[in-house]
Write a structure and sequence with these properties.
alpha+beta, YaeB-like fold, five-stranded mixed beta sheet, about 40% helix, globular
């Protein structure tokens, strides 16, 4: 069965993913594959102060993304350690 949603990473998110160690990369990619089937699983939280932004935990990492239901697209805005991901998000907006 083909995934319902397509996942795209911003340039910054792609760089952040490449910087992770192999284990964290694998865990993050697995989480993104799960999101393709259900972009709003029970573990997802809305990001306070950023309407439309969602976040999900994967270990000590956070993935911040938006969902475009009309285009069946998940756009990953930032990912990384919980202490850094929100700061990088503030710099990009």
């Amino acid at each position: 069965m083909a995934p319902a949603y397509t996942v795209e990473l911003t340039g910054a998110a792609a760089r952040q993913l490449r910087k992770l160690d192999r284990t964290a990369q694998h865990r993050t990619i697995t989480t993104l594959e799960v999101l393709q089937e259900n972009p709003r699983p029970p573990a997802v939280k809305a990001l306070v102060g950023h309407p439309g932004y969602l976040r999900i935990r994967t270990g000590h990492l956070r993935i911040v993304y938006t969902v475009d239901d009309a285009r069946l697209l998940i756009l990953v805005l930032a990912l990384g350690d919980r202490k850094d991901v929100y700061r990088s998000l503030e710099r990009s907006t």
